[in-house]
């Protein structure tokens, strides 16, 4: 977006095309604030940038500015397409294809994902075989579950692939480094500290199909009943095998207090864990989804990583919802390891 602004302002200076004329310079808020005023297209950009990060435009000041009809059309284009498109290269958690998938396919109660729906989803593969999901949090870092590396933690054995199809991946990357949480106990009974970060080599450029998710602040709260999506190539039922096309399912956050009830997980849910699903069963993550993302959109439609698929008692069973690593609990750890 930044480069775009500079380019356009240079262009407008050269062409000096009166796309926007300031009518009353002295009363313009930007003018008043900065004590300078630039005209034509450059003024338009400074107005856009000066006010609320570009969402409020010169269109909000009809009494101050006169706008060329072409510019007006471009404004609309920019508002609808441009802002979203430009955020692809700088922002996080954006999806280009926001139309919900229409083909209902059962997978532990979910549906097929469409290309570009979950651009942060990665597949971690051991010698070319899908083992775990992972989530892109920058051009070089993935976050996943520690238990994925229980048997093999040498980066050389692993690769990451992007895109909704495992067989025809959009991009593939080697793994440079795997950092498993220091406190993760490498045994099957412990699920605490089930988090790892993985560094890719080389980095992946962001596109419509490959893009990072937003990381929440450590203080962010995702209340009970918040609707989230979990995605993965995992099994459709307990003990099933992985699938080729990415699937998604909607689940709701279940409070730790409810999840610790005797008939549910009877006290084993720790503060660093989060339950999501339905106590009546039916929709859940399953084997092969491990390490993958549980995400929810904020009010602006930007998607945040809430959880990492960690464990569960079988799949989609009554009173046994999926258990996730609570990302906010490890937000500082992620920052410490990745600088993000
Ligand atoms: C310009 O705006 C100022 C402040 O709002 C106002 O006092 C002034 O009359 C305006 N001038 C013209 C020419 O409209
Ligand atoms: C969550 O949903 C359940 C079932 O619909 C309801 O009983 C419960 O009160 C809700 N909790 C909150 C905090 O809204």
Describe the structure.
The chain is an alpha+beta fold. The protein is built from 6 helices and 15 strands. A 6-stranded antiparallel beta barrel has the order 10-11-12-15-14-13. A 6-stranded antiparallel beta barrel has the order 4-5-6-9-8-7. A two-stranded antiparallel ribbon has the order 1-2. Helix 1 packs antiparallel against helix 3. The radius of gyration is 23 Å and the shape is globular. The protein starts with a helix and ends with a helix. Mean pLDDT is 79; it is low at 28-43, 45-59 and 99-107. The structure holds 2-acetamido-2-deoxy-beta-D-glucopyranose (NAG) (2 copies). One of its GO terms (molecular function) is serine-type endopeptidase activity. Residues 107-339 form the Peptidase S1 domain.
């Amino acid at each position: 977006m930044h480069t775009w602004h500079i380019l356009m302002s240079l262009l407008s200076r050269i062409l000096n095309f009166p796309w926007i004329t300031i009518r009353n310079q002295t009363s313009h808020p930007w003018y008043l604030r900065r004590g300078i005023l630039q005209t034509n297209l450059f003024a338009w950009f400074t107005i856009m940038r000066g006010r609320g990060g570009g969402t409020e435009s010169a269109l909000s000041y009809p009494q101050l500015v006169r706008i060329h009809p072409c510019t007006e059309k471009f404004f609309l284009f920019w508002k609808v397409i441009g802002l979203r498109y430009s955020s692809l290269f700088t922002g996080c958690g954006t999806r280009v294809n926001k139309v919900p998938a229409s083909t209902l396919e059962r997978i532990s109660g979910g549906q097929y994902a469409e290309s570009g729906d979950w651009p942060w989803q990665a597949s971690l593969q051991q010698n070319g075989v899908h083992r775990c999901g992972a989530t892109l949090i920058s051009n070089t870092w993935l976050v996943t579950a520690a238990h994925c590396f229980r048997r093999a933690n040498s980066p050389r054995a692993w690769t990451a692939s992007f895109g909704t199809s495992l067989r025809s991946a959009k991009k593939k990357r080697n793994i440079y480094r795997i950092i498993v949480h220091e406190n993760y106990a490498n045994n099957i009974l412990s699920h605490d500290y089930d988090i790892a970060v993985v560094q890719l080599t080389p980095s992946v450029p962001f596109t419509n199909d490959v893009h990072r998710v937003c990381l929440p602040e450590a203080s962010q709260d995702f209340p009970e009943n918040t609707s989230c999506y979990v995605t993965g190539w995992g099994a459709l039922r307990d003990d099933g095998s992985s699938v080729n096309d990415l699937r998604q399912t909607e689940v709701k956050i279940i409070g730790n207090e409810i999840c610790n009830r005797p008939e549910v997980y009877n006290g084993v849910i720790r503060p660093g864990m989060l339950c999501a699903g339905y106590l009546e069963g039916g929709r859940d993550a399953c084997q092969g989804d491990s390490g993958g993302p549980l995400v929810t959109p904020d009010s602006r439609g930007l998607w945040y990583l809430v959880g990492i698929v960690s464990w569960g008692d079988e799949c989609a069973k009554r009173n046994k919802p999926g258990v996730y690593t609570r990302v906010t609990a490890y937000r500082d750890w992620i920052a410490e390891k990745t600088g993000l």
